Automatic annotation (TrEMBL):
Major location category of this protein: membrane
Protein known as: Oxidoreductase
Organism: Paenibacillus beijingensis
Entry's transmembrane regions: 46-65, 72-91, 97-115
Similarity remark: Belongs to the DoxX family.
Keyword Nucleotide-binding listed: no
Keywords recorded for this protein, A-Z: Cell membrane, Membrane, Transmembrane, Transmembrane helix
GO cellular component: a single term: plasma membrane
Bilayer topology: Multi-pass membrane protein
InterPro entries the UniProt entry points to: DoxX (IPR032808), DoxX-like_oxidoreductase (IPR051907)
Location within or outside the cell: Cell membrane
Superkingdom as given in the UniProt entry: Bacteria
Amino acid sequence: MRTNVATTLMRVVLGILFLAHGISKLDMGLGNVAGWFESIQLPGFLAYIVGIIELVGGIMLILGLFTRYVSVLFIVIMLGAIFSVKLPAGLLGNGQAAGYELDLAFMMIALYLVLADKTGWSLDSVLFNKGSKTNETAL
């Protein structure tokens, strides 16, 4: 029971955080985000992909739908952010740019969700574990 609560909370909070990042990119305008991506030598089209994954993936994590797949995508995004932008600033940042400590925390939560036996109270449990013992704690 406690593990389900913790897993559910981690999944939902991570989903909210990524959803907020996706909304932020939409608010800025994906074209502007694409321009920033290009300014750091990344293909601009990646901004659209990342924005959509953050937005839709955040919603999916909140609902607990395809949790493992979405979490893998979030790990890839975090690795991309660390190695393309944040690594030079160091773990805690350098006063001019943010460090990658938060990205590591997000990545570790996502990794837990990939490896966990259950995804907590989720649509995954309801839709894909019908009749199994792991469905005991489904919604």
